Amino acid sequence: MSRFLDKFRLTPAGNLPDVSLQSANSILPAAQPEWGSLDLTLDGIVLLDDKAVILDANAPALEFLHTSLSAISGYSLWDVVPEEVAKQNEEATELALDSADRHSFIAHESFENSWVEYTFRRCPAGYVVNLREAGPAQKYQRLLEDSKRYNQLIFEANPNVMWVFDRTTLRIFAVNQAAVKFYGIARKVFMTLGMEALFPQGEGAELLRSLQTGKEEQSEMRLCKQKKMDGKEVLVELAWSQVKWDGHQAVLVSLADISDRHLADGVLKRANAELQKTLVAQQVELKNVRHDLLTFTQAVSSDLQDSLHVAHGFAARLAEKYSLVLDDQGRHYVRRIQASISQLAKLVDDLRTLAQLPLRSGVPAMVNLAPVCLSLIADLRKRDPDRDVTIEMDSRLMLVGNKGLLTTAMTCLLENAWKFTSKKTEAWIKVGLLPGKAPGELVLLVADNGAGFDPVYSGNLFTAFQRLHSSADFPGNGLGLAIIKRVAQVHGGTVWAESPGQGGASFFMSLPQGEASAS
């Protein structure tokens, strides 16, 4: 038994007629009158009865089948050939021979990795089957047919709506199941339609013009309408591609229904338009409010400054001219009045600074803050000449920003550090620049060994009028750190603070570094 026959279960036929290859003489070509000479040809020949049972076979055929005649006589040919060949071709061959005298197919035998051409012809006894090794052309033809079959399966199972029409006649001759369901048109009816039947109001003309020019092999997605069986028109995204299909110069059309998406887009656009109107109205209102607030702040600060200037002048005159007639208690009251006036004047200045900061943003430029800091520290030493504070600072503090706003922020930071180190016998203040977490970002650092703060309340540090220390110990109005935060925000940065357990505080201001102005 051959290696192939070991794989199959063979069923003997019943009583077999006494037929040999010699009895097939009438159907063989005239070029081969001697049947014995057929064993010399490379073609295998198998004689079957009308039930496809093997009656006889020549030597080349037995080599193709890898067996002997005695082992296969009386068995169906489909039980002898490899199972994969029988499974793929038995039914199709029987159907073909019901209406034709000849049928051929090419099969791939995976066990031997070979391609064999089978040709069936009718004869008086039943059928003569020629077996021959398929050449490259036949192999490629089989592969091409397989590819066409796979493409057809992909086309039919594709969830996108697809149909094909002839470029010349415009008749639709292929349609997938998704298209049948989408249009509500039966497949048989589809095959009677021209492509223009699916385009309402002549919208298919653009597609036809593109085809007639011949410049485009395929199109980009385009919006158009399609008409269903019930007359309903829907908006779709359509694309097409010129293809060869079963010998036709054809066009493959693919489309997606976007009606629901279009409706949703319309609702979204209307909502966006309403939102944009509301936003514009709120921006105008906010601009008016800011203008009114600025006007109010300027008016109030101007009136307050005038009044405070007058009050400060009278208090100074009182202390100067009438100090001799005032007792110690009276002179103490005068000093309290002067201190309160100075504190209130500083509060007015800081409020005005806080309100006007956004209007002072200006154009960023390269700034060296080192000279600015040295000048501010010199002013602090003049105001408090008895103090000895060590300053640690780089010789250059180069960064991009608004010089006026950064000067305001450094004034608040250094005054804050100077104030909270006032009770230290060996006070120090550090100023420096650190690389930020984001690319191109710098962090301005001001640290001191002063009183520090409780980290639990660090979230309140940069809020206006929030103080973590008594004004009796450290005077102030609680606006300095709020001003620093506003400066950082104007620059697109942030602020934060840290205070270690042993005292002291470090304040950080991140500053994104954009391009400096050329001016």
TrEMBL record:
It is an enzyme of class 2 (transferase). It catalyses: ATP + protein L-histidine = ADP + protein N-phospho-L-histidine. One of its GO terms (biological process) is osmosensory signaling via phosphorelay pathway. SMART domains: HATPase_c, HisKA, PAS. Keywords: ATP-binding, Kinase, Membrane, Nucleotide-binding, Phosphoprotein, Transferase. It comes from the Bacteria. Its EC number is 2.7.13.3. One of its GO terms (molecular function) is phosphorelay response regulator activity. This is histidine kinase.
